[in-house]
Design a protein that fits this description.
single chain; carboxy-lyase activity; alpha/beta; three-stranded antiparallel sheet; 14 helices; hydrolase activity; TIM Barrel; hydrolase; Amidohydrolase; eight-stranded parallel sheet; ACMSD
């Protein structure tokens, strides 16, 4: 079949389960995440960094998905992964961690710092070294600003071009809009590191008994899934309103898997708030908040028809396709069908901007994708 080639602003890799445990000294390794299933298989007890909580295990549908995911050999093997990508028509891709999604749950700075370095060294050895099509996200501490800056600068020196940050740091650390994080934004801009934010990575509330669940009852599954998208919007809002992006005009942000049509809407709301409540606004910005959001924040989507309209009808140029390989919400196994549906009747220049152009702006070091065959 003729292919539409695309880059992807969102994908995932599954590290070895014992990555941290095997690379850290025992006193720290004992604090890394560990889980024990109940005999009936319905719940498990998780221990992480001196904290214990229980969570419900996946439903039968989710278990079936996990079984199917194991067939995607590239989730664990960076060499086999290239075959999966070629089959799907995906060229370059931003790769997020799996273990690293725990980072905002750690509360011991020394532990988090050590885990992030171990993950970064492993990613360099096992993933980044395999292909220049891979944009592997570095990981940094979100507990201590100085640790984050040190690791970001080290990662940039090793060739990383992007750094993964959770949508919100641990509650014991300052939130992203606070001035404490200014050294990190400055360091990222100077190093040319893209801030890569994946939705749904707010810290886990270990005391609520509702880990991963915001709603129960009728509609809960859809509401819980939808709820995860808002965390990425809040991150973008914080960096615009706090002046972080205004002060660092060369700093770029990628919000992955959260859709794209929310960017113009959020920009309108922020512009209105800034204009109508200007007497109370602090800090004052040198540029319109909507313009900052529309130019410095990129957003990836996988199935949303409205994302294409955000470019064609609302003037948002930084729309980027993301396959979310190989997650349930993603397009693995039907990427070409999805692309052809999304871009049926859409001008070629629009398609190329969304599938390749926006990605190439953020990561110009990735070789160009092959020519489309349609």
């Amino acid at each position: 079949m003729p292919k539409i080639w695309t880059n992807s602003g969102d994908s995932h890799f599954l590290e070895p389960a014992d990555l941290w445990e095997s690379r850290l000294p025992r006193r720290l390794a004992d604090l890394t995440p560990k889980a024990d299933k109940d005999p009936d298989g319905e719940y498990e007890t998780v221990r992480v960094d001196g904290q214990t909580f229980r969570r419900k295990l996946p439903t039968s549908a989710a278990v079936q998905f996990l079984e199917n995911t194991r067939k995607a050999e590239g989730i664990r093997d960076a060499r086999l992964r290239l075959g999966d990508l070629d089959h799907e028509g995906v060229w370059g891709e931003v790769i997020f961690p799996s273990l690293g999604m725990w980072s905002s749950t750690f509360r011991t700075p020394e532990l988090l710092k050590a885990c992030m370095r171990a993950s970064n060294e492993w990613a360099l050895e096992e993933v980044a070294s395999v292909s220049d099509r891979y944009v592997v996200t570095a990981q940094v501490s979100t507990l201590v600003v100085e640790d984050a800056v040190t690791e970001l600068e080290w990662a940039a020196g090793q060739g990383f071009r992007s750094v993964f940050l959770p949508t919100r740091p641990h509650p014991s650390a300052p939130d992203w809009h606070m001035a404490d994080w200014e050294p990190l934004w400055r360091a990222a801009e100077q190093a040319g590191m893209v801030l890569a934010i994946h939705i749904g990575t707010d810290p886990v509330d270990l005391t609520s008994g509702k880990v991963g669940v915001a709603y129960r009852g009728p509609g809960g599954a859809v509401m819980n899934y939808t709820e995860t998208t808002f965390s990425g919007q809040r991150f973008a809002m914080k960096l615009v309103a706090s002046g972080a992006l205004d002060r660092h005009p060369d700093l770029k942000v990628l919000i992955s898997e959260g859709g794209a049509s929310w960017i113009p809407f959020l920009g309108d709301r922020m512009r209105e708030g800034y204009r109508q409540h200007h007497m109370a606004v602090r800090p004052k910005l040198t540029r319109d908040p909507k313009d900052i959001l529309m130019t410095q924040v990129y957003a990836s989507f996988q199935h949303d028809e409205s994302a294409v309209a955000a470019y064609t009808a609302m003037g948002y140029r930084n729309v980027m396709f993301g396959s979310d390989y190989p997650h349930m919400e993603g397009t693995y196994g039907h990427t070409q069908d999805t692309l052809k549906e999304l871009f049926d009747g859409v001008p070629v220049e629009t398609r190329l901007r969304i599938t390749q152009g926006a990605f190439a702006e953020l990561f110009p070091h990735v070789p160009p994708a092959p020519a489309d065959e349609v």
